[in-house]
Amino acid sequence: MHRKPVIAANWKLNHGPTDAKHFLQRFLAQTPRQQDRTLIFFPSAITLTTVADALKDRPDIWVGAQNVYSEPQGAFTGENSVLMARDAGARVVLVGHSERRHVFGETDASTTKKCALTAQARLIPMLCVGETLAEREAGTTASVVERQFAAGIAELDDAQIASMMLAYEPVWAIGTGRTATPEDASDIHGVLRRALTTCLDERAAAGVPILYGGSVNRGNASTLLTAPDVDGLLVGGASLDPDAWSSIVRS
Ligand code: PGA
User: How far is the CA of 113 from the centre of ligand 1 (A)?
Assistant: First the structure.
């Protein structure tokens, strides 16, 4: 069970090993060890070991993979497996990020497999869910995230569900400068929390961190973080600068 707020940086296709080293030197110099929150960096696969090495004296900061392939190994040129991610130092794997779904055509079925492989490797799947603008305008947000959640957990047992993480990231808010209001975020986090209680008891369901993501920045981070049922933040653009990121994670 993970009760501390989780503040995660999704670097996407930014920061190779050299940039990441410089970033972390600067970031660590101004970010003392955090007792009351867990920080996570999701670098590119090529940068994962560099980041894990730079953070080996900082147990408060975890490293995660942005994606893994839906098969454990084999003739899949260009892909990365969950065991490789673990070997490189990852503890968490993002599954079903909106860019995976909408740019690369990832399906609910592949999130089922990726969550299962991740949990079997004893890593934490961070399942991302979220509706498009059209789905929101059609009033189907709750059913979309419930469907994505159901697919992500389809092959997990209760203990694996209890140790996963969720991220609610409305597609229309990612990288657009439009953020969900804290009330909107709380509403959908409530939908996800209720979905968790269909498979877990109340206490275990309450222990699954549900992060919000989508245009989080220095100005809105602390308000979002204090919204009911928001247990953390998943941040893209605003995590790329070490000074700005340090100030957000300490907010
Ligand atoms: P953003 O991205 O903060 O740049 O909107 C968030 C994400 O995609 O995880």
Answer: 24
